[in-house]
Amino acid sequence: MAGAIDHMLCKFHVSLSVADLDRSIAFYRALFGAEPAKVRTDYAKFDLAEPPLVLSLIPGQSSPGGNVNHVGLRVRNAEELVGIQRRLEAAGHRTEREDGVECCYARQTKFWITDPDRALWEIYVFHDDIDDHGSARPPRVEPLRLNTVKSRAPLAWEHRLRDPIPRRIPHDDNTLHEVRLEGSINSALDAVNRSGLLAESLRALRPGAAIFIHGLAGDRPSRPGPALPGPAAAVQHVPATGEVVDDLVRAGFVEVQIEKLSETAYFIVDGVPMRELRIAARKPGHRPGTATHQAVYLGPMRQVTDDFGNVFRRGVPAALNVHDWQMLSRSVASSTFLLLKPAPTAGATAVGSTSTISSN
Known about the structure:
The chain is an alpha+beta fold. Helix content is about 15%, strand content about 35%.
């Protein structure tokens, strides 16, 4: 009975990404002086009357900016939910509603919304508990890393699918350490300023700094407006994976690396599998004209070519400038190369019983 009465309270909701679920449960048990209301291998929840709080803990890596996944309100009934949603939409804020979804070992009706600073809010009604986690999950949120005059933290800028695309990223040329585009590739093809977003990212990034793209990509081009369910309803366009790579290269990015392309397709629309894509690339830095370093490609391909046009034939030393050599040495492909720095002196030298000959 106490649990049923407790669910009638309107409560503040916080969802945290935690590195170690058991360790976090022990901490919050000590902090609140209460046992968690629900514990699973991939989820835990504290449901408190005093303070009126629902705290959920989700195992996962937090971003450099913190571990808040999302915040929200659990309201008493559908009437309150609809009232809040109508009030927000009347004020010009877009919401995304989900009816009767199974999420976090519970059945809920909810809507999602972001505030002016891109914090993600979940407003929901709890219906009942279920045994499974459920298929619906909140959009992945990586809090923005902020920079102040007194802070030495890396300066980053983030855009999310729900946000308007600015004509100009609000940072000077060559100042950002990182750009993150969360779902931006899934905005409508004719969205305002969409076509210039990668060029703006390149302008604002420091030489050698990275751009990270996360979104939904198809195995091949698909029609616009795929009409996907749940939070994915915001998706207006799903580019092919190769299109995203080509767009980055055309914009001037190098060291393009697909970090994740999910084996399982999240959706299939008109026969086109659509997968989660994570891709990273870098803004090139200054490239000296003098080739002072070497790299020997070890295979298994006959030869490979990098984004700067350097051709590496298997077993044949290739002369590189220090910029291209450094980019190669920190890439995931570095293990397939023998990377050689300039010899300290010209000619042949003996080191122990092994002779090494420097290359001109």
